[in-house]
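Hi team, as promised in this morning's meeting, here are the two structures we talked about. I've kept the exact order from the run log so nobody has to guess. The first one is mostly here for context; it's the second one we should focus on when we meet again. Sequence first, then the predicted structure tokens.
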Amino acid sequence: MMRRRDETNKTDHRTNLYHCDNLIVRRGQEFQIKITFSRAYKPNEDKFAVEFVIGADPQYSKGTYLPVFPTKTRQSSWGGRVIQTNDNVVTMGITPAANCIVGKYHMYVAVQTPFGIRRTKRDNSRDLYVLFNPWAADDAVFLDDEAERQECVMNELGVIYHGAYDDVSERNWNYGQFNYGVLDACLYIMDRSEMPITNRGDPIKVTRKASAMLNSRDDDGVLVGNWSGDYTYGVAPTSWTGSTDILLSYSGSKMPVCYAQCWVYAAVFNSFLRCLGIPSRVVTNYYSAHDNDGNLKLDIILDDNGRIDRSRTKDSIWNYHCWNECYMSRPDLPPGFGGWQVVDATPQETSDGMYRCGPASVLAIKHGHICFPFDAPFVFAEVNSDVVFYSRKNDGTMEPVRVNKSHVGRMVLTKAVGSNGRRDITDQYKFPEGSPEERTVLEKAEEFGCKQEKSSPPEADVNVVLPTLEISVGNDFEFNVEFVNQSLQKRTVQAYVSGSVVYYTGVSSNEFLFKTPTVTIPAQKSVKELMTIESRNYLAHLVEQANLNFIVTGKIKETGRIVTAMKVVTLHTPKLTVEVTGGGRVNEEMMASVQFTNPFSFNLENVHLRMEGPGVMELKSRYYSLLPGGSSLTWTEMFAPQRAGKTRVMATLDCSGLRQVSGQASITIET
């Protein structure tokens, strides 16, 4: 099978990084096998074929039984030719069709004899995997940019963005798409979904099926979502460092893995796509609208005095949301809508009866063609919704009092190609706010049934400005609300200032601040309202993403207009220190040490640490039952890097008292 890592098949097909003894090739590109017969091959007399079969019931008509012939006169959909004959040894070149089924094939050699056809016995070492091929022009996933292919197919090291749009944080991730057992786990996901084998060559069907299978809602898929803060029966979403452990655990136990939130779904989906050869990347949208009723607006309801009515406000704005983009042609859409497609495995809303989303063309979303399959209106709303504040009168009627058109979809980020920096791709999803093109797009979306808020209530002549703060968990801080009067008369504002601890999905857990100052502002002046926030008020209520959400609303006495302002403050968690020492060469022993000091006065209990590095270190974990306030821990592990190149060792620390603590060290390994 010429299946060794250093032989031409694996190097030509760029599959030599997979930890797998079998031959792995990409479709639409020739590979070679050597067949040794019992005597010399005579092309004019001897007739043989190489047969490939996949699935339980192989049939020629379904493309699951594929005979490949050495002669030009007789060819099937997979091309075959004799490259070289040397006595009894025939070297044959075989080219799988560029649209063939992706998966694991068995191979046989069949020879025509006077007594009928004789076949070789079944032998596992002759099984081969056929993957998608972004390097082949005829493949639906062809991506004509070598730097993008290296990043979106071959790179195992991920950087996933979170935090807030004006205070971006990053999380390192090991996609591990070449690790031992991962390819089999990805094929198991398709088997488990009972996806017809004949659909497995179509990237549109594969990605749509996988977006349903990566969450466990309704199909016992890979990951169980949990946004509650209680992760007693599994691993906290913030604790994972890579996809390998999750995929191997699912294919080994055949049970959904606990627990995930949006970036875990996106990261594991990314490993699945890259492993099968579909170019993909993880994307983060800041201020992502989760619109329950599909109407392109998020409704925030205020009572008569301008205070938020939490029981009636149903839509939520996620501080950020992660999804995937994968690259493919879209023969099912008009020309021009191929390229990057949004797929999302986080279970938010159902699509055709299952929790899944996509593939939706990014270009179609930008231009407002939300009638195109699949799920374009939902993604369009995630980046384009308006935030509408309604005032609810005592008789139950609602009147829009303020519309914020630029809050949602503030910024869309992904990792830059070839470096660990970030790349802003907001302009691929939408035209600049307020531009004529943007208006045209929203009108077009409306033709396809997306309702928009038409009213434009008059602007208030008082502005509320909230500060941009960088604060660490456990610190007291000043929060100053500035009221700016732009009118020529004095103004009096009856204000409500609310501070609550929120999950990153925008859901409040506890209100720790509520003040109702009445502020008088002289004409064309500004007044600051000072507030001191003490850590003891919010620390007990903190949830894992450590976000504080401040909302200021109020009513101007003189004019009856409503003023509003919103701000999410992301609290910074302490960092782990990761140090790597030793050899720096392949197969030479090295040492990684993780250090952490508990910065609080209270104890941290049930502390879990995890550490891994793409291509250099398998996942290692450690448990400490208690870390007293002010004390430190040091954890060291020995490892021997398996391959050369630049990579990172990344670690996380997780316990119920403190989540989202991570650290990393960059290393270069030489041969």
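And here is the second protein, the one for discussion:
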Amino acid sequence: MALLVRLLTLALTLVLGPVATLAGPAKSPYQLVLQHSRLRGRQHGPNVCAVQKVIGTNKKYFTNCKQWYQRKICGKPTVISYECCPGYEKVPGEKGCPAALPLSNLYETLGVVGSTTTQLYTDRTEKLRPEMEGPGSFTIFAPSNEAWASLPAEVLDSLVSNVNIELLNALRYHMVDRRVLTDELKHGMALTSMYQNSNIQIHHYPNGIVTVNCARLLKADHHATNGVVHLIDKVISTITNNIQQIIEIEDTFETLRAAVAASGLNTLLEGEGQFTLLAPTNEAFEKIPAETLNRILGDPEALKDLLNNHILKSAMCAEAIVAGLSMETLEGTTLEVGCSGDMLTINGKAVISNKDILATNGVIHFIDELLIPDSAKTLLELAAESDVSTAVDLLRQAGLSTHLSGKEHLTFLAPLNSVFKDGTPHIDAQMKTLLLNHIVKEKLASKYLYHGQTLDTLGGKKLRVFVYRNSLCIENSCIAAHDKRGRYGTLFTMDRMLTPPMGTVMDVLKGDNRFSMLVAAIQSAGLTETLNREGVYTVFAPTNEAFQAIPPEELNKLLGNAKELANILKYHIGDEILVSGGIGALVRLKSLQGDKLEVSSKNNVVNVNKEPVAETDIMATNGVVYAINSVLQPPANRPQERGDELADSALEIFKQASAFSRSAQRSVRLAPVYQRLLERMKH
């Protein structure tokens, strides 16, 4: 029996192929979108497709799921209509489109799909109609009637004035001498046309749109007895030049031509591949300040980055863009390519003046604005585009802005403009030094920073890096936005002005009159050496006001007991550096005393053990100081908490006693329970 089963399985495999193939090959993006349109239209009957029409135009699209809910194409509202899916027709008196279109030859099928103008021009040639009606297997990408009507009059005149050469050749270029269905139309492929074996460029995009020399397939896969017809929205023409050759012959690319030659990218642009060149016109270059343009043109690396930022890694026809999408450039940046009505946009701006200029190795769109990547900009240019203009103005006033425009490898730690909402500081020698301490002596990337790393500044200070769960900080200031890496330097946008450490924790406390009583207490407790030596401490420093709030008798008793005083002071010292930007909602910080401090932050107010902090982030070489207006009590010293603990213990014991009371031997078992309770209460 088992042998019979194996033989039957083998026979089925030989006849049908592997089981995995029984469901058929994976559907192409076009077929998936068509399938979705069928699902949306099935309530109207068999073989009905939902179609989105852009209001005010004749543009129609089969709908994918996202477009169905958004009801927009290129930002323009659409209406839904229901039509027969390709290959089907209505029957009077019946719902939907139950009948398959009758198969006829290519010539007659042209009329069925809405390409009667193509039929008309086919008639005018002497040779083509017999070929379309005769035996064979062909594919024709047939322009719609609207496509022919939109041709410039001079182009159409040149075709119809010489029907047996120009018109015949144009029509043959739309044909392939074999049957090609959409599932065979792969992205980036080339089909050999029936005109001098010239290539037709095919692109099949993930959103289901298929283009032929950047003309969109409107309705595809209309079968004929001798081939297949695909309706397209443009009359296509032969492609003869590569991208580099087009740059060479276009007058509006004079500056681009010189830039490409200087960068050595001409080899790439005349080679094989499928690229999109967002080609800046002479006007685009003229919009850039002469100083900036000359700097980039004279810097081979910056120039190459600039040009690579205008080259997308794949060919992108305008008709394929129906919503915004991110596309990567050869430079490695991401551009947001979108559309607004009939206009293409780059990063939200309608800068494309001429689109879909086809080349053998891709497509060109003319743009009237230069797309300068961060990697080709100076620190000064990066800062000018960011929300740090106030910090740049301070550097200018201090005579330090040349550091941002030169060739030094630096990182500018630039505070946000909001940091200065209460006014900008006066520029003096001290402020000038502080500003220099916002410039690090190397070009950094935040992703490579690590906890405990030290950074040397132009002001001569060493800054420490602190890495927390949700923030990355340098001293008291944390990075507020993604870093921008320029030609020579990097811009870090910071959430506050840096305050570099000026001494040890003990130095900080001695230098501030608010902490004179604390300093005396530290000295009495023998902790001076601890807070002077190297380490990583977070000190919640009670002010004189905090000590004065303690009743005099209790204060004198505390100050007279060195051991108890040291215990309480150690509870104010965390065993790591925690700046306010690293706190988040709540952090439990272990103290030198052993118990944990609860540090929280809400609405820019820091609390420790629910007590508000008067001042945060006073930086020291071996830690950070927070000023507080109360003396914190360790848990063992809090009478209320000890009482709560006893109450909880008593409640738990009574619960156990209640449970034991359900037992038949309750009198025996309750005795030790109550005994334990009494012992706990005594203590």
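Starting points for discussion:
The two ends are 82 Å apart (CA to CA).
The CA atoms of residues 409 and 488 lie 5 Å apart.
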